TrEMBL record, chain A:
PANTHER family: EXOSOME COMPLEX COMPONENT, EXOSOME COMPLEX COMPONENT RRP46. GO terms for molecular function: DNA binding; RNA binding. Its main location: cytoplasm. Gene3D superfamilies: GHMP Kinase, N-terminal domain. It comes from Eulacestoma nigropectus (wattled ploughbill). It holds the Pfam family RNase_PH. InterPro entries: ExoRNase_PH_dom1 (IPR001247), ExoRNase_PH_dom2 (IPR015847), ExoRNase_PH_dom2_sf (IPR036345), PNPase/RNase_PH_dom_sf (IPR027408), Ribosomal_Su5_D2-typ_SF (IPR020568), RNase_PH (IPR050080). Transmembrane segments: none annotated. This is Exosome complex component RRP46.
From TrEMBL, chain B:
Signal peptide: none annotated. The gene is Exosc3. The keyword rRNA processing applies. GO terms for cellular component: cytoplasmic exosome (RNase complex); nuclear exosome (RNase complex); nucleolus. This is Exosome complex component RRP40. GO terms for molecular function: RNA binding. Residues 2-43 form the Exosome complex component RRP40 N-terminal domain. The lineage of its organism: Eukaryota, Metazoa, Chordata, Craniata, Vertebrata. It comes from Eulacestoma nigropectus (wattled ploughbill). It comes from the Eukaryota. One of its GO terms (biological process) is nuclear polyadenylation-dependent rRNA catabolic process.
Amino acid sequence: GDTSVLAGLYGPAEAKVSKELPDRAALEVLLRPKVGLPGVMERSREQLLRQTCEAVVLGVLHPRTAITLVLQVLSDAGSLLSCCLNAACMALLDAGLPLAALFCGVTCALQPDGTILLDPTARQEQEARATLTFAIASSERKVLMANTKGSCSVEEMQQCLAAAQRAADTIFQFYRDSVRRRYSK
Amino acid sequence: AAPQGRLLCGPGLRRGGAGLLVTKCGLLRHRPAGGGAYWVDSQQKRYVPVKGDHVIGIVTAKAGDVFRLDVGGSEPASLSYLAFEGATKRNRPNVQVGDLVYGQFVVANKDMEPEMVCIDSSGKSSGMGIIGQDGFLFKVSLGLIRKLLAPKCEIIQELSQLYPFELVLGMNGRIWVKAKTVQQTLIIVNILEACEYMTAEQRKQALAKLSGN
């Protein structure tokens, strides 16, 4: 929809001695909301993004360095976390950092009558019984991260996961087209 | 049918499990010469030191017998004062903080601090060393440098017909240019920076406009 996030990646750069890890790169994520100072929600989202990115970035190729990812929310109309995930993956691709796999974020909203809605708007998210966000990797559609707000049964979560995996194909095709456009110039 | 012989795995590819893994996005290129080599051509702005690369470094500190150079990677590189042509313990090279040095990496891996020298394996300097005064240093993406370093590069040939100039290309994305006047230097800098996004026809048009002036 209208949610947009600007992502900037810096690295591998020199890390402070207190933060450097001896065998891999130290990944740091900063999420800045559109208005106001970053709060607790931003911190928890940053940790989710950081753990997802650490699973795909080959940090062992750049020990004792720091990779910084800065995300700025430009407009929020629902599905913010999966938008941040997609922006982060495109920033990693664009910067040329070595990755083991690509990932994409998909949000599902479970409505009170049981239907599944993909990429809900802010109003649909509020009306929904549960909102689930999945980060899905490109290699065999494995799940990297799952975040749930609200309550749902296990079968419903499995159904949402299957729908999200199908939707992930569209997003990976979008990545492929954007990269192809960039390299055809 | 897979050809026999050793296949070389270049930047962007890694050996993983039973086959090759692609780790960067870009165009896959193949060179059939030798045993065959595959690599991924990707566009990047951040430099990672690689052994044997010729780069331009800026001297940031002198620590005893060793100079610290900023090469645009994650760590400063070190350069010993004896690594210049004709340098002995009595005859030290005249290097100040802030000077530009063109050299190549002799040690550059992920675990150690990169080391540079300004002589090649036979002891001759072959164009390396301290870069003179004046001139202009600027940064471009690594893909443009690789394009400019290709043999018979059209951009350099067309530019040399405009004005005579001196050019040093570093694989870390840094270019140093010096022409007769400051204005000519700045024109060349602007053209080189714009070459990244211009097609060949736009470039020829821009150069024709400039040489007509």
